[in-house]
Amino acid sequence: MNFYSCTRADLALALQQANIPAIHSEALYKNAYRHGNITAPWSGPHSTSKDLETFFLSPSPAGSPWTFSLPEFEAPLESTEDHALKFGVRLADGYVVEAVLMPEKTRLTLCVSTQAGCRQACSFCHTGRMGFTRNLSTAEIIGQVLQAQQWAAAHPEWLERAGLPVTQRVTNLVCMGMGEPLDNLEALRGMLEILLDPFGLQLAPRKVTVSTAGHLDGLRELVSWNTGVQIALSLHAVDPALRRKIMPIEGRFPLEQVLAFFQEAIAAGTSKPPLVQYTMIAGVNDSLDIAHQLSALVHGLKPKVNLIPFNPFPGSAFKAPSRERLFAFQDILKQAGIPTSTRFSKGKDIRAACGQLHV
Ligand code: SF4
Question: What is the pLDDT of residues 116-130, one digit of tens each?
Answer without folding.
Answer: 999 999 999 999 889
